[in-house]
Amino acid sequence: MRILITYPGPAMHNGRLFLIPTLLGDEPAAQVLPAGTLEVIHRIEHFIVEEIRTARRFLRKAGVTRALEELSFDIFNEHSRNEEFGDYLTPALIGHDIGLLSEAGTPCIADPGSEIVRLAHEQGIKVIPLAGPSSLLLALMASGFNGQNFAFLGYLPVDRSERTRKIREIERTATEKQQTQIFIETPYRNIQLFEALLQACRDETGLCIATDITGIRGFVTTKTIGEWRRWKPEINKRPSVFLLSGM
What we know:
Radius of gyration: 20 Å
Strand order of the largest sheet: 1-4-3-5-2-6
Number of helices: 9
CATH class of the largest domain: Alpha Beta
Distance between the termini: 48 Å
């Protein structure tokens, strides 16, 4: 689905592609987004988003007061095909800035937007990343784990035996390389992942769980697996980041 407005005539220079971080939860936009990021959001008229309704909600929370019907939205998500988004950057080619929005947090990090960024580079469009919350980086910062050597693994396997094998593999990597291992899960499967970690890992292995990081009820807690066995976190259906360390 595309909602478009008519573009004015050609401009002298290409527009730019701004990578705009969005909120991680229900916190006020001014609490987590810098003034410069908000200023860019307020003046851009063309957006590439994962879901229009979510994008509109975010723009309202960011203080955009103009009629949202005056803005243009192109949908790009994990279901998009290359032939569907080839013209999404056309506004930039005729002089208009474009904003690329993630559903939550930072675009292109655990997010499909990198394909749009690649296309922008190929077309000579300047790409500008803006400051804002990234759940992965915030979790790493607050974990107490190695922030100079780390890897993001995305989602672990859903199959129980494959997941157990993967957990033991990344625990071994975390210990041997002293490399922080970062991964995520669909919120409704957080409990299953947590229990799998308790079953597969050694007592001395470090586990950090960062949940609703910027929210009022958010927390970032680091314990050994042995300690986690005695304390169950409230993470069911709550966005969380998991980090494993050989300590």
